[in-house]
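REVIEWER CHECKLIST
Item 1: Sequence provided? yes
Item 2: Single chain? yes
Item 3: Sequence as submitted:
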Amino acid sequence: MNIIQIIPGSGGSFYCGNCLRDSKFFEAMKAQGQEVIKIPMYLPLFDEERYQREVPVFYGAISMYLKQNYRLFRTMPSWMERLLNSTPLLKLAAKKAGSTRATGLEDMTLSMLLGEDGKQKDELSQMVNWIVEHSKADVIHISNALLLGLAKTLREKTGAKIICSLQDEDVWVDVMEPPLRKKVWALMGEKARYVDHFIAVSDYYASISIDRMALPPEKITTLHLGINPEEYTFINSIQKPRTLGFISRMSHENGLDILVEAFCLLKKNPSMEDVTLLITGGATGDDRKFLRQLKCTIAHHHLQHQVMFQEKFDGQFRQEFFKKVALMSVPVRKGEAFGIYITEAMASGIPVVQPNLGAYPEILAKGGGGILYPENNPKQLAKAMETMLSNSALLEKHSLDARNSVLTHFNIHPLTQQLITCYKNL
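Item 4: Structure as written out by the authors:
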């Protein structure tokens, strides 16, 4: 089967769960004998340069922004557009403020959803022409519903079945002003008719998508995110120093300040004197002020020597992070549609402590591997972490449960087979 994955890149500036999700399925489908091509949009893909040597980045973020906002650039020569879409410039752009948030990009979001009627119709033609030339696609899998403006033209020009993943579109759309927010959700619902099937990453998020986009439930399959357990070294947490971990974009939205404040509370307990905190996951320009303030908080509590920031988070550096961490929390303020960092941690035998929000209860209900705390604030998180760290038998049990849950419920190989079966049924 010939499969195309269309994936918005992060430029490698931060831990991108959606990019990692698509990368894991890509590798597993290739291993099962499928012909798969990944097509990046906007920015280069996170941790995936080795696959992208022959596939250009379409809808380059810099040229798109300039064309959207300045009429002069809509007629730029092709050599200039190629320069702006070069990997070094796109990676530089990925680190700048505003590169991965909706604020300031509302008009572009609407224009993208309009597809062939939007301002990016030339970019759409370039992508479709490249696909037609390089692959006789049976299936084209779009990474999220914000890209549904592509669906109609892709379907008509390639004859492929169109699949769309559903994950965290609300994070992008719900920060917009209410009238615009409503318009974007409605437009996504309208464009959904050109999609053959949707893949939601959790039952929790499937219900949100049905509500926000008026999607027919029979058109949605829930497929949890998986990872390859063989890629992760299992070490029971009781065999490690008591190191807490955070891996995700280091931002206010992802609750890094909640974790840091909880750590400061935890350290007031003399029995937690040896506990340290390791933080990684990268950031964008939007996060600089937040991180400066966070480091001031850490210094104010005289904990700067017990809180470590790991700059690199891809490949072997991510594996080294998991080998060091005994307990992990990413207290995302509003919860998430899934959170692949949870399964990465659990595969390494690291229990998680998460707020009772989003899909976290759904993940932990599968096979354990962590605990939930009731309200997403530092006091409740500190209490939950202390419960785990002060009871070695409990920590050992959750560490074993975490690994077993991944082997049984979040193993990428059977999940990929389910995805391929879904493709074939269409």
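Item 5: Key structural point noted by reviewer: The longest strand covers residues 2-8.
Item 6: Recommendation: ____
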